[in-house]
Amino acid sequence: MKFGIRFIGYVARLREIVELSVLSERAGFEHVWFPHDTFMYNTWVTTSAVAERTSTIKIGSVGTNPYTTSPAEIATYLATLDELSGGRAVLGLGLHTQKMVEWTGIEATHYISRTREATEIIRALLRGEVVDYQGEEFQWSDQCYLRFKALRESVPIYICPFGEEYLRLSGEIGDGSLPMITPPAAASYMVPPILEGARHAGRDADEVDIAGCAWLSISEDRGAATDVLRSMISYFGPYLEAPALATAGLTPRDFTAISQLVDTGDYDAAKAAVTEDMFTLALAGTPIDVIAQIEQLAEQGITQVNLGGPLGPNPREAIRLMGEQVIPYFQSTA
Fold it and tell me: N or C: which end of the chain has fewer CB within 10 A?
């Protein structure tokens, strides 16, 4: 099992997020990821700052979408970060939800073909090719090529999928896949299509790093660990897809009242409306609890656990607990 950590904007202010990234490297995390969310901290600036403060951890985005950002910008960003970090850049390309793209008036109905074409274009640019591309989504001229040589011609591209067709695509074309395993039980639904996509493309399924994006809340105090999840669940729960929720015995209808409260700005009432069974959306509890839950993910085929969310009542303490108890456990049993 590989370990990644994912910092969403509301965990801390930007300088503290950079410091938490440094602590994560020291704790033994192999990857640090930053959600490329609309109207949140700019991922490219953040990853550049982290690259300057770290030396071994791989640095990537999650959900850099080829709608609000051109493949040209994505490729130049990726190549620039890779050079700055000494070959540690990774890219999470795709969407976790159409709605966040459509907030800005952009229709995101052809996201599968657009992700496929964007992946082809970015890889060609990194190889130093002239990308005179005529596809369904992108039409480029013979002036489309990098004006500098990329440090690496092949930088890992992870696809950020939802739904079975998108999951299959991630296994078909991705160096890795970044499915949202919220709840963690949804790994049983997410992994098989990814492996099917890899086999359909004639690939060895072991080539695809299935980096399940889970929510984490870890603490020596189990009650504190679950209680801090309320904000995360109330805000993001209504966006989760029905098949994933069903693996935890939940439905989108369970979040209707919470969604209405969030829409009206009554966040305290929305948090209070989170029910006990909704805490199963995250990896939560003491280090022993979290170890057991990650073992179940490994059994389902997850090869990298990508931990985001609140992390715990105290993010620094959460990183310490992961580095001292959880990560070493899996290294000792490898």
Answer: C
| H/E stretch holding 75 | helix 71-85
Length of the chain: 334
Match 């004639």 to its residue by tokens. 202
In the chain, where are the structural domains located?
2-215+284-332, 230-281
Q: Is-contact 144 76, C-beta < 8 A?
A: no
Phi, psi of 310, rounded to the nearest 5 degrees: -70, -20
Per-residue pLDDT, averaged over 262-274, amounts to: 95
pLDDT digits (tens, 9 = 90+) for 213-244: 999 999 999 999 999 999 999 988 988 989 99
CATH number of 2-215+284-332: 3.20.20.30
Residue 314, token pair as written in the block = 């105290």
Q: Please give the backbone phi and psi of residue 171, each rounded to the nearest 5 degrees, phi first.
A: -75, -30
Distance, in Å, from the CA atom of 239 to the CA atom of 277, rounded to the nearest integer, reads 17
What is the Cα–Cα distance from 126 to 150, expressed in whole angstroms?
A: 6
Enter the pTM of the model. Answer: 0.94
- For residue 1, give every residue at least 6 positions away whose Cβ sits within 8 Å of its Cβ, in sequence order, or none: 294, 297, 298, 302, 303, 304, 305, 330, 334
Residue 123 CA to residue 126 CA, distance in Å, equals 5
Closest by Cα among 229, 234, 307, 227 to 264: 234
* Assigned token pair, 308: 């985001």
Q: How far apart are CA 178 and CA 95, in angstroms?
A: 10
Question: In this structure, which amino acid lies at residue 182?
Answer: T
Using 50, 70 and 90 to split pLDDT, how confident is the model at 44?
very high
Q: In this structure, which long-range contacts are made by residues 106-114, counting pairs with CB atoms below 8 Å and at least 24 apart in sequence?
A: 106/67, 106/68, 108/65, 108/67, 110/136, 110/137, 111/65, 111/67, 111/166, 112/165, 112/166, 112/169, 113/137, 114/66, 114/67, 114/138
Which residue shows structure tokens 């679950």? 226
Q: Are 227 and 281 in contact (CB under 8 A)?
A: no
End-to-end CA distance of the chain: 8
